[in-house]
């Protein structure tokens, strides 16, 4: 009897684990720049209670996880210069608010991913204050934080002068001193921070600026490998995505660390592979590149997966890439949301918010259109925003961009093949057609995009059980797929 109970228990655990993985596989992550999202106490600054208030909105959008830009105390509005990794910036709320966010999000099956800023701290972090004091007093020893940072006695690139013969490494400017990640005590601090947040129930971490840890892939990967093992030691399912904002080869080389995923900067943004291929209508070339890129990732690490996005808080907003062509804008959305890997939506993208130029313009207040006031824009923002729509209007308008995003994400969430599946590149003998088959033991689909304005009749050599129109009004008859210009479909394939 005991044995039977044990077997049953194991089965239940196994089933629930695989169910979790299934949900997780199709997850779309929503990036929130916290201070600009939703303000609940009328100080003009978005806060954690504001995110809790908007969980239903995010659930309805179909997202599975939220990535929060840094939430810790900091003197800047962007908070990438952390002063205390163990508390919440008071303009955002309290640790109790953060605990509540995790609980409330988990109730809705939404995971919380936090930004882990390890390359540097803020210049006023107590570690740096102590280190600086001891350097200046000539009283450094291994116990007083001098070794937490990279002090140098010569003026090199990316250093800041402390006194006549001491400089400190500061890749992102004098207010952000770089941590010495080789130091054992720094690594212990990092391990404690990781454990603290995993114990709270965060789903994982977005790694800020890992390329700059050491500035070269070999050394970065030694540290990233330690970091990956340290995080997975506490939660083997923890999610980790790194920001290596560099060329394709450099991004790929970081997969050797074992980290789950890196943002695909080669595909993203207005000059990236997706948008430039839509402009040039060279869809087959894009499909070939995406196919190869995913295979290269899996060849390095079979557990790894792509992280696809259009823009983030450091880039001009994606609605600005195709301002005069909504059909091409929709193709861009279809292409990245229906591609291998996890997909990210930067807050406001789903309503077509605009913003470019200086950083503040890329982080403007979310436009809710409610009676209560939206957040203030970041100080210094100078974007002349002619955006005259909002969430409230778009929820009601069935043809809105918001409802389009909802539709495509919902279709994406019907399939469990985005993170882990086999791919087949399909050549339909047309440069303007993208076709990739995604398949595993359970599911088998072909994603097809027509980047040309012309209608197409394409020979499909598969048994198609069902055609799902993403946009357009396409059809299939006797293995001839009729595609509208600038449209996308999913074909469900049978035996
Ligand atoms: Ca507030």
Explain what you see.
The protein is α/β, with parallel strands linked by helices. Helices cover 32% and strands 18% of the residues. The chain has 13 helices and 19 strands. The strands form four sheets. An eight-stranded parallel β-sheet has the order 9-8-7-3-2-1-11-10, with helices on one face. A hairpin with a 7-residue loop joins strand 12 (422-425) and strand 13 (433-439). Helix 6 crosses helix 7 and helix 11 runs parallel beside helix 13. The two termini are 42 Å apart. Mean pLDDT is 94; it is low at 5-24. The structure holds calcium ion. Calcium ion is lined by residues 39-41, 43, 45, 47.
Topology:
Layout: H1 2-25, E1 28-32, H2 48-53, H3 55-61, E2 65-68, H4 95-107, E3 111-116, H5 126-136, E4 151-152, E5 159-163, E6 166-169, H6 184-200, E7 204-207, H7 217-234, E8 239-242, H8 248-253, E9 261-262, H9 273-280, H10 283-300, E10 307-308, H11 326-337, E11 342-346, H12 391-396, H13 401-413, E12 422-425, E13 433-439, E14 444-450, E15 456-459, E16 464-471, E17 475-477, E18 480-483, E19 487-493
Parallel strand pairs: 1-2, 1-11, 2-3, 3-7, 7-8, 8-9, 10-11
Antiparallel strand pairs: 4-6, 5-6, 12-13, 13-14, 14-19, 15-18, 16-19, 17-18
Helix pairs in contact: 6-7, 9-11, 11-13
Calcium ion (CA) is lined by residues 39-41, 43, 45, 47.
């Amino acid at each position: 009897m005991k044995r039977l109970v044990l077997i049953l228990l194991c089965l239940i655990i196994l089933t629930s684990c695989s169910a979790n993985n299934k949900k997780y596989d199709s997850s779309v992550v929503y990036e929130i720049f916290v201070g600009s999202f939703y303000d609940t106490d009328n100080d003009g600054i978005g806060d954690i209670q504001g995110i809790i208030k908007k969980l239903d909105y995010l659930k309805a959008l179909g997202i599975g996880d939220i990535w929060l830009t840094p939430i810790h105390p900091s003197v800047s509005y962007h908070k990438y210069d952390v002063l205390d990794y163990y508390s919440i910036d008071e303009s955002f709320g309290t640790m109790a608010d953060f605990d509540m966010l995790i609980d409330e999000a988990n109730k809705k099956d939404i995971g919380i991913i936090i930004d882990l800023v390890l390359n540097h701290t803020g210049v006023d972090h107590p570690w740096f204050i102590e280190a600086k004091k001891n350097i200046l007093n000539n009283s450094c020893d291994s116990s007083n934080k001098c070794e937490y940072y990279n002090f140098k006695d010569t003026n090199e690139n990316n250093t800041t002068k402390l006194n006549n013969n001491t400089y400190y490494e500061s890749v992102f400017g004098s207010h952000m001193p770089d941590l010495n990640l080789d130091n054992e005590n720094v690594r212990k601090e990092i391990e404690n921070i990781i454990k603290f947040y995993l114990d709270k129930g965060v789903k994982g971490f977005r790694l800020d600026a890992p390329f700059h840890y050491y500035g070269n892939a070999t050394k970065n990967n030694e540290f990233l490998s330690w970091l990956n093992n340290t995080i997975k030691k506490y939660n083997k399912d923890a999610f980790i995505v790194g920001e290596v904002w560099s060329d394709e080869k450099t991004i790929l080389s970081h997969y050797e660390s074992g980290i789950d995923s890196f943002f695909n900067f080669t595909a993203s943004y207005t000059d990236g592979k997706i948008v430039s291929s839509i402009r040039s209508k060279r869809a087959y070339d894009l499909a070939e590149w995406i196919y190869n890129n995913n295979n290269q990732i899996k060849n390095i690490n079979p557990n790894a997966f792509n992280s696809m996005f259009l823009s983030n808080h450091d880039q001009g907003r994606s609605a600005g890439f195709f301002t005069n062509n909504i059909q091409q804008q929709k193709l861009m959305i279809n292409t990245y949301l229906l591609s291998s890997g996890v997909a990210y939506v930067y807050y406001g993208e789903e309503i077509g918010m605009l913003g470019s130029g200086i950083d503040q313009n890329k982080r403007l207040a979310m436009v809710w259109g409610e009676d209560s006031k939206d957040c203030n824009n970041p100080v210094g923002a100078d974007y002349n925003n002619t955006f005259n729509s909002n969430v409230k209007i778009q929820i009601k308008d069935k043809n809105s961009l918001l409802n389009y995003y909802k539709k495509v994400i919902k279709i994406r969430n019907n399939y469990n093949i985005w993170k882990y599946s086999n791919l087949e590149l399909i050549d339909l003998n047309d440069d303007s057609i993208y076709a990739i088959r995604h398949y595993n033991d359970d599911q088998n689909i072909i994603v097809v995009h027509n980047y040309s304005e012309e209608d197409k009749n394409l020979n499909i050599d598969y048994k198609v059980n069902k055609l799902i129109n993403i946009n357009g009004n396409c059809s299939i008859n006797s293995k001839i797929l009729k595609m509208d210009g600038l449209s996308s479909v999913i074909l469900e394939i049978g035996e």
